[in-house]
Amino acid sequence: ETGVTQSPTHLIKTRGQQVTLRCSSQSGHNTVSWYQQALGQGPQFIFQYYREEENGRGNFPPRFSGLQFPNYSSELNVNALELDDSALYLCASSAGLGDTGELFFGEGSRLTVL
Amino acid sequence: AQSVTQLGSHVSVSEGALVLLRCNYSSSVPPYLFWYVQYPNQGLQLLLKYTSAATLVKGINGFEAEFKKSETSFHLTKPSAHMSDAAEYFCAVSDSGGYQKVTFGTGTKLQVIP
């Protein structure tokens, strides 16, 4: 059984640039959630995708957007990067709506914005 | 809105001593509750979950947690700390409905002293 994989693991961008982070969900999972974890904080919910549709969004501006593909992999896009976007971005997959909400996390993509 | 509060951002225990990490939740519906562990530079791993089947929940690595509705608490315990338990621990809550937004606490960093 393949776990959740994320790429890239680390990246550095400058303010104003755009970034795309990628996530492959665990085999058999059709739901992907993205979280932002700032240094010293707990993960904050960005949004969730279920069967290629956004299924809920946290308190993040529209410059944070996403996609889910037919194979349930997902992308997180952030436009017009700001210094405060520096964080660990975590992708988590789960078995689908109606499940207990147990999340299976990847190891994250650490973004540094200079 | 659902939320969790973790008391104590840092906890230190001696090797072999009791581990107690505190979590209180707030939820307008019967919640699902989780404890996750995060080792340095890694994603989060599920330790245990409460889904209303039993109030005392046993997880991996000898950890357990007790759901107390009257106290709105879900504290994590382990009878005897091991050096490998040093990590950051996150309490989390999810509504029991279909929408799977999971809300995390701010985390408690556990230090184990030899």
Largest sheet of chain A: 7 strands, mixed
Mean pLDDT of chain A: 91
Based on Cα principal axes, name the global outline of chain B. Answer: globular
Low-confidence stretches of chain A: none
Give the integer mean of the pLDDT values of chain B. 90
Distance between the termini of chain A: 38 Å
Strand content of chain B: over 45%
Major sheet of chain B? 6 strands, mixed
Please state the structural category of chain A: mainly beta
Give the strand tally of chain B.
11
**What's the total count of β strands of chain A?**
11
Q: Biggest interface pair, residues each?
A: A-B, 29 and 24 residues
Can you tell me about this structure?
The complex is a heterodimer of chains A (114) and B (114). Chain A is an all-beta fold and 114 residues long. Chain A contains no helices and eleven strands. In chain A, the strands form two sheets. In chain A, strands 2, 4, 5, 6, 9, 10 and 11 form a seven-stranded mixed beta sheet that branches. Chain A has a four-stranded antiparallel beta sheet with strand order 1-3-8-7, with no helix packed on it. Chain A is globular, with a radius of gyration of 13 Å. Chain B is mostly beta strands and 114 residues long. Helices cover 0% and strands 57% of the residues of chain B. Chain B contains no helices and eleven strands. In chain B, strands 2, 4, 5, 9, 10 and 11 form a six-stranded mixed beta sheet that branches. A five-stranded antiparallel beta sheet of chain B has the order 1-3-8-7-6, with no helix packed on it. The chains are: A mainly beta (114), B mainly beta (114). At the A-B interface, strand 4, strand 5, strand 9 and strand 10 of A face strand 4, strand 5, strand 9 and strand 10 of B.
